[in-house]
Amino acid sequence: MFFVLSKTLNFLATPLTIICLCLLVSAFIKNVKWKKKLFWTGIILLFFFSNDFIANACMHAWEIEAKPFSTLRKYKLGIVLTGATVSLKPDDRVYFGRGADRVTHTVQLYKLGFVEKILISGGSGRLLSQEEPEADQFKKAMILMGIPPEAIIIENETRNTYESAVQVKKLLEELGYQSSDCLLITSGFHMRRSVACYHKAGLKPDTFSTDFYSRPSDYYIDSLLVPNVNALVVWHKLMREWMGFAAYKVAGYI
Into how many domains does the chain fold? Predict the structure, then answer.
């Protein structure tokens, strides 16, 4: 039930959905006072959420920053969370979206000797359809990139970050790993919730953020004043993550 509810709330709590609802209701409501309020609320929200400078600043404040390789020690296990593949046809290959850094940076960590083995955690997060688990797809891609199959462990049953933390804890106990021997790898915007879930499960891995949506702030006129569609994308990702964080808090997952 929580899985279905969280997916529904994530859909509703997005900038474009909120803006469209304001404008749509304003078009059909009969009360003139509320019609004007909803219309102008929609317009103001559109300009706010399409402001590139504001979107970038908020995402930058939320994301956990990248760590230089020079600051890392060696780990027995790199735990990489899925959430980067895209469902396309033909299904004889792996398709990646924005989160491909989760895979490529994990491969880089392995090849540079920072992690001895890789644990990929994540099944299918689809609400209505069941597809090949993402952990399996990550493994295929990593093998193509030169990672030996025996260096990869997969957990492909979990559907969200909380379930991942619980299952990974069991696997670490079975395999004889301490969480202090592990490096948790996921997107910068997703790291706060991931760390909170893993801490709740009793795990304290070090962290390595990837896949950043923010960039160093700039003060160019177009960034400050000109609406940018990419800002809507950034807010969409950020608000969904905030909603997920709040839902996990209410559910006791963090």
Answer: 2
What is the pTM (predicted TM-score) of this model? 0.91
Judge if 102 and 159 occupy the same domain: yes
113-139 CB burial, b ≥16 within 10 A, e <16: ebbebbbbbbbbbeeeeeeebbbbbbb
Mean pLDDT score across all residues of the chain:
92
Cβ proximity of 85 and 95 under 8 Å: yes
Q: What is the rounded distance in angstroms from the CA atom of residue 79 to the CA atom of residue 140?
A: 16
pLDDT digits (tens, 9 = 90+) for 13-36: 789 999 999 999 999 999 999 999
φ, ψ at 96 (rounded to 5°): -115, 145
In contact, 102 and 212? CB cutoff 8 Å: no
Amino acid making up residue 32: V
- Residues 126, 112: Cα–Cα separation, whole Å: 34
- For 38, the domain range is 2-63+228-251
Share of the chain above pLDDT 70, in %: 93
